[in-house]
Amino acid sequence: MSKYTSALRRAVGLSALVAAAPAFAQSAEGDDILVVGQRDAPIEIAPRGLAVSLGEEQFAGVNAVNTEDLIKYAPDFFVRTRYIGDNNAVPGFRGTHSTQSARSLVMVDGFVVSNFLGNSFAFPPAWGIVSPTEVRQFDIVYGPYSARYPGNSMGGIVNISTRPPDRTEAFGTVQAFVQPYRQYGTRQDFQGYAAEAGFALKPDNSPFGFRASLRRLRNDSQPQQFYQLGYSAGLYGNPSAGPAVTGGYADPALIPIGGKTAVVIGDYASVATRQDQARGQLRFDSGDVHAEALFTYWWNREETLEPQTYLRDAAGNPFYGDASGRASFGGHTYLLNAATSYRLGIAQKDEWLAGLKLEAPLLGFDTRLNLSTLRFDRQRSRQSNGHAAGIAHGAGQLTEQGPTGWYTGDLLATRMVGAHELAIGTNTSLYETDQSVFDTLNWRAATGRTLRTRTFGRTRTIGVFAEDAIGLGASTLLTIGLRADWWRGFDGGLTARATTGAAAGQLVTQRYAARSDSALSPKLAVKRTLGDGWAAELSLALATRFPTVGELFQGSLNGDGTFNVNSFDPNLKAEKSRDANLVLRKRLGPVTMTGSLFYQRIRDAIFSYTGFNAAGVSSSSFKNINVTRQYGAELIAEAKDWPLDGLDVDANAAWLDAVTVRNAGDRASEGVQFPRIPRWRLNGNLRWRLLPALQGVVGVRYASRPNTDLDGLQRGDAYGYTSELFALDVKANVDVAQNLRLSAGVSNLTNDRAWVFHPYPQRTFLVEAGVKL
Asked: Considering Cα of 58, then 111, then 290, then 293, what sign does the dihedral take?
């Protein structure tokens, strides 16, 4: 991509921001709560620091099939969604890496759906527990500035509020989408659909309300990875050492393999995903008493059964590799392992969320109790040992998970005492995992099992907090908070089959010693209305994020059954951050401008990379980075009915500098921009009511090219890299009748080819119809 193209794209994003700034406007007094977005609904989480609330008006401007799509234009925020129905959609705030999933606290109606069993793309929030059409409101708070939330809010907090059963109605939505995809030798049109129906019952004068819905999502995604030929110095110069093949794509834009140009030879198959969801909510409201029960079940199945080879042998037949483990292409011989290439796979994940919420006055306090559990009822994946074994139902492996899930509890009590709004409470959580990997004789039936490894463990956190929001006159609010947490990692262990030594052939178990830790986290925020349309807030905080089960307890054994201390670090320290955020807002008639300056310094940041561990041995695993630091600035513009009636614009720009300051495990990373963090993010969403029944929408997202690796040596715009992103989206909403809306849209209109190691979707067409009765 040329520098001129990059400049043009940046200009498009900036123009959306500038368009929202008025030339002339009258001032108005600022609100006492600084929240970006909708103004007609209260935010559901404590708005300390930069806070964003999105509702119906903003949702209308999004081509949304995944629930997380609804927040794709939020300021300085992203979700790593690689395709419609993606199961690994990790959110990121500001300078949070797209695989640092444990730094984001995500809730549905206050019930935790964040997967703190690990810290990577494999542990995303359970977005699929709720469908996009059941979302009433999205609230986002950046940073750990409220004592009410644990240290996993170090990046930020997201709360999804679902639609309550506050009236009797029936509803339904159908969607269809198609993506013409062209990359290397893969040239297919991938398509899918989603259908949902439900009802709500709210009898007159009854305290009870009930809502239920069913949804199915079916999609064939673009391939998420591509096979490449391996390199061997001893074979490379000998073209006769392997069977001659054609059809590979030598691509100098890819990360070189062995210092040689990478050769792409096939794809990992389209991901055929099917997701079914059933949801029920029962509410009781009588006076000051509120009770709510939520249950939702999510069935998920992914199949990768048709990997495609681009290679052809001398007779023109598809070539998937042979027993030689070699292939000659372009006059050179490469490695091609037939047992690990073009694998077939099936993954199943069934999970359910049950939550109970009670609100009532108690001893002069307004109290709220949330209890919830999310359980993986069944989670297993099957994979063949190569293509030949795949189509013949031969050998492979099975990964099973369970019992796995988490339990959470939150108790909050608030009370006004003069100028003081007191809040006290406690949070607790228990996360547990148990994963086994088997070798199988029949990969598809998962028969003939032989246990290879088993990992298991638990973490428990108990926190208590107190906050006092003190009104200092009519224009100033001072909030002081203190949080204390007690953490324990326990019941951790690893089982594997020894391959050498006296224990050869036997299963050997290594158990890890239990660990405990604690932390105090003070918070401070000052909010002031300055007059003449100005308002400001300064927030300061310390936060501690304790290691997850996956970071602590998922290592390996040596071949003789002894513990391999180099595979991971069971003694990881907790991450500790110092945070500051200054927010300024100016109301200018129909336009609101919000500026934000932020700073975060993290000691002992946990990150997986190749470097030296505490024993001075190079390994690829989770390690503590001594110090990382980020700071930046954000500018957000909101215009309603300006400069034309019916025209609403939301636009934002962010600049950030996130670097590794000190890293004894990898000195080359010091002073380098942290991986996958762009210096610039620009988002804009324009919604124009062209006619009473017709709304046109334009959305834009831009992120500059970041580093791909910790040392800043890998920067590119191709498979394997994290690339620059430019997505231009359009949509039209037509209100056919009062209760019937039709929509049509195109995501990534310009067909920009962006990568987050995996490919993002290319141009995708969407049509939708929604009805309420």
From this structure: positive
